[in-house]
Structure formats: structure tokens, C-alpha cells
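User
Please review the sequence:
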Amino acid sequence: MMKKTAALLALMGTVAGCTVGPNYTPPQLAVPTAYSGPQAAMPPGQAIDPARWWDAFGDPVLAGLIDRALKDNPDMATAASRVRQARLGEIQARAQYKPLVNADANVTDVRFSKNAGFSQLARAFGGGGSGSGSGSSGATAGGIALPGDSIKTFAVGFDASWELDVFGGGRRGVEGALARTEAAEWSRRDAAVTLAAEVADAYFALRLDQDQVAVLNGEIERQARALQISGNIAKVGLVPAIDVTRQNGNITATRARLEPLKADLDVRKHALGTLIGQNPEALLGELSTALPVLAPLPAIPTGLPSDLLRRRPDVRAAERNLAAATADIGVAVADLYPKFSLTGLAQLISTTLGNLFTGDSLQLTGTGAATFPLLDWGRRKATVGMRKELREQAYQDYRSTVLTALRDVEDALSRIDAERRRNALLRQALGDADRSATADLSRYQAGLVAQDTVLNTQIDVLRARENLAASDAQLRQYSVALFKAIGGGWSETMAEPARGAN
């Protein structure tokens, strides 16, 4: 008997080592050996931590806003909750094919019918009985309850059941749950990458509005001085009085351009307040004070395209989703094979509470069961086919994510390079316009040119200053886009936001 049991256990162990379904192999996609876009050379000794790329801009206000956003933004809290949910899914997957044990206790009171067929049989063999017994147990000496009497039974015990993971469906389920947890973690990191970039983009848009306001205020002061000069010249009759009116109208038009910029400043502050998880008006006062002077743009270390597959959280999440989809195929394939289960029941049963906990009250039940799939009209095979298609979709999603990541970097490199050249030309154009305006003003004061010439050159200076300010902001925003494209903004030790509700 022992030999047969050992042989059976050995056979079960051999079969249980089988795991159906495809084994996962990470996909190997061909990527370029280098980016085609031009890259700025890193200065000697300069090092940028991709996890905190915003420090490279040298702006403590920006760094503080991003740190606050990563801590309190609702999207980050949601991403962290999804990670915790996935970890609970791991526990479920691991527990599915482990033995389940339950304890139970019950009291049963059965009163027998006076008129049932069994009651007639009890009268015939039990020596009669009128069915009017009033005790808690009306059983006869032979152990048969008479009609109209009752039996009270007490029972306590344990039951255990175990579905054997013979073909590895449970193990594939655990593989899928682990992969989904990792995918959720990478998605949380991707949320951090996106959030940091959004905060920086909104912050530099705010700084652009402030620069534009400063440009307009400077131009208004300049035009006010020109108005004063025109007024003095008009008093001595060297220029007509209409020139003063025109100059004053020019100042009024410039002041009118300030109003939408002031409104846009509030809009930017509202956006930043929301991004850090506060009310929209939370930063109105804080960001209205003088902000630090913007430092020169940092050189961004892009690395190699092959590094992108390891650095970009969305690529890593897509790869983990592919692994989970592959494991799901094994779970579905396991349903094509027989299922084996073991059930055991140990109970103490007695009609009296006094002798319930004695050896004579012990009742044991053991069951081994096997279920063989015979006819399901193709449902299980269709499920396997659906899981394979889901894996194909996950693979194509991974490919698309990789290609998009490569494109993001190439686009950002091209835009930065073009904007740098444009920025240099705009600086040159501003210098030319400034010199031209100064010369025309001197000629106007000498009566050599009309006022229209002066006004036109002043407009050219204003436009050149605004264009340069916009280009400076655009360069910073493109730099943010490049940091985001290379997957900067997360670290292995990212802290999870605290739960907001229980």
C-alpha cells in the first residue's frame, strides 16, 4: 500500500511539473545605433541626474513645484492605488490553487411528520407512538425517531479543499499577476514623467507671460519718453501737434495688449495650482512675486536609442503587459485539460452536547474528484484563441510604444536645433531693430524724418523683443519635451503618495 501511495505521489509530482502555454521571451526590436538629430555637446564635468532633470534649470521655484506635484497630484495617487491593487491581485493569484480550509459549527433540529410514509414505517417497526412526544429528542431505544418527534444534532468541524495545479494554469496566473504589478509600477513612473513635464511646461509658459509683460512695460516706458520728447518739440513748433496724439495713441494700444497677458498669467497659475494638487487659486500670491532669473539652458544627455528601451517607463509597462498577455494564454490552455481536486471533511457530530467532544463523535470524509472537459461547443478553444489575439495586440502596442518613443526623441532634437538657430537670428534681428529705432529717433528729433518712421521702427523693436522672449521660452519647453522623451523624471526609490481615503 505504501509503495502504491509513493508511486502515485511521484506520478502527480511529475505531471504537476508540466506548465502548458507559451513561455515568455522578451521581444527583440531593431533600433537605430544612434539618433539622427543633432545633439548639444555636454560641457566637461557637467552631470545631469535624469531622475531630477528639473534641477538642471537652476530654478528652485520650478523644482519646488514639481516636488509638490509628485507628492500631492491626484493622478499620482491614482497610479499608486493601481499598483496596490495589482499587488492584491498577486495575492489572489497565488491563493487560487492552494488548499482552502474552513471551520463550521451548526445545530440541527428535525421534527418528523406524523403523516409521511416514513412515519408509517416507524410506527410499524418502532412499537407504535402517537406522535405527541414533547421532548427535545423523541428517539426510541432503537435510534429511530417516532412520528411527530424530533432529533437535535450538534456538529463542529473543519473542511479542506484543494484543486491541484497539475497543468500549470495557476502558475501561469501568478506569472500574469506579477507582470501586471510590474506594469502598474512602470505606469506609475510614467505618470511621474508626464506630470513633471506638464508642470515645467506650464511654469515656462508662465515665465513667458511674465517676460512679455516686462517687454510691454519697458516699451511703454520707452514710448512715454518719446511722447515727452514729441511734446517738447511740438511746443516749439518743430513738429505738428498731431504727432503727439499719434504717440499717445501708440502708448494706449500697447497698454491694451497687457490685459490679456495678465489674464493668461492667472490661467497659468491656476493650472500649476491644480497640478500640485491644490485649489486653482492656491499659487496666485506665491507666483506673483519676483521669480529667479532664468539660467542658461542645460545640455541634455540623450544617450543611445537602446538606452531608451530601458529608461522609458511607458516602454517598460508595454513590455510587462505583453508578458502578462502571454501568461494568460497558459491559463486558458490549462482549462482544456482535466482538473483534479481533493476534499476532506472532519466533524464531531452528536445528538447531545455533552458527548460531542469525544472520540465516538468523530466523522471523517475524504473525496478525490476529477473533471474531464468533453463537450463545450468550442468555448475553451475560443478562449485560447482570444488570449492569443490579446497577446498579438499587446505585442503591437509594445512596437508602437517603442517607435513613438524614438520619434519623440528625434522630434525634440530637431526642434531644439532649429529653435537654437532661430533664436540666434532673432537676437541679431533685435539688435538691428534697436539700432535702427535709435537712429530714426535721432533723425526725427532733427526733423529729418516723419513720425511714422519712428513709430514703425518702435513697433519693429517691440515685435523683435516679443519674438525673442517667445523663442527663449520655446527652447526651454522643447528641452522639457526632450527630457520627457528620454524618460527622465523617475527613480527606483520613488515614494508612493499616501492614501487619500480608506
